[in-house]
Amino acid sequence: IEHLQYMTTGKNISIFQIEFFVRLLNKMSLSVKNKDTVRAFWAKVSPKAADIGAGALCRMLVVYPQTKTYFSHWKDLNPGSAPVMMHGAVIMEGVADAVAKIDNLTDGLDQLSQLHAFTLRVDPANFKVLSHNLMVVMANQFPNDFSPEVHVAMDKFLALVALALSEKYR
Amino acid sequence: MVKWTDSERSTIQSIFSKIDKDVVGPAAISRCLIVYPWTQRYFGSFGNLYNAAAITSNPKVAAHGKVIVEALEKAVQNMDNIKAAYAELSVLHSEKLQVDPGNFKLLADCLTIVIAAQLGNDFTPDVQATFQKFMNVVVSSLEKQYY
């Protein structure tokens, strides 16, 4: 950053623009092909979005029981229970929103980030756990569509969603 | 010492009897090389890994996938002491292959996804939990001899 500051002194580039660009480059950004792949796969699976969300949430609670600590206010954490089904759908509305805002996740998910940072205070390590379970369900329900190319695009996308959600944490 | 219930033992046996080993192994290692391309650093002698198509059709990758599944079957046969069964493998990965153990988890995740795709409705959340426990033990045993 210091080197860039020196280079830009007296020129018409603001240090904020440089810093923004450097931060952008520091992530494993989505290529145009990645974005097209995510959008195409999402178009195919979105009719089943609520099921995917419920399935992923349910698997997360069963396979990674430490995540249950965030849901002590639910009466029933078992697969197929009403709170799990409803919350799975809520999560997928967030994912759908992220797909629509795929060109600028940081700004697009600003409010969701505030929610997770200040109200929910979910340890960001858990975003990775949920992402993994989302992809397990995608592979399980759409085995012929969840090819390696879709897998890598989706993995990158969900990682960037997690990053955008963590923006406001500190 | 890892404790397994009878139900967990039979679940693991069942998974490995249901999967097509010649498909799952190659598919899992291919996905790992495609989804986490930095893992290619360990396969310099495998030839063309330039893109997903090349990786998926690479015969050395496929052969190695089968080697991996055979090693997992050894763990299935020695479920009560995977640590001992994998001692030599752990030394191999640490001293000769010099693999960063973080990569074991990446391959385990790819295996989970490939098996989830193959087993469909049989891959219930409980089955996934048992498989995850098994893979955690496998990964931990592979890391054991690192120093």
From TrEMBL, chain A:
Pfam families: Globin. Keywords: Heme, Iron, Metal-binding, Oxygen transport, Transport. InterPro entries: Globin, Globin-like_sf, Globin/Proto, Hemoglobin_a-typ, Hemoglobin_oxygen_transport. The keyword Heme applies. This is Hemoglobin embryonic subunit alpha-like. Residues 29-170 form the Globin domain. Belongs to the globin family. The keyword Heme applies. GO terms for molecular function: haptoglobin binding; heme binding; metal ion binding; organic acid binding; oxygen binding; oxygen carrier activity; peroxidase activity.
TrEMBL record, chain B:
The keyword Transport applies. Keywords: Heme, Iron, Metal-binding, Oxygen transport, Transport. GO terms for molecular function: haptoglobin binding; heme binding; metal ion binding; organic acid binding; oxygen binding; oxygen carrier activity; peroxidase activity. Residues 3-147 form the Globin domain. Pfam families: Globin (PF00042). Belongs to the globin family. The gene is hbbe1.1. This is Hemoglobin subunit beta-like. It comes from Gouania willdenowi (Blunt-snouted clingfish). One of its GO terms (cellular component) is haptoglobin-hemoglobin complex. One of its GO terms (biological process) is hydrogen peroxide catabolic process. SUPFAM superfamilies: Globin-like.
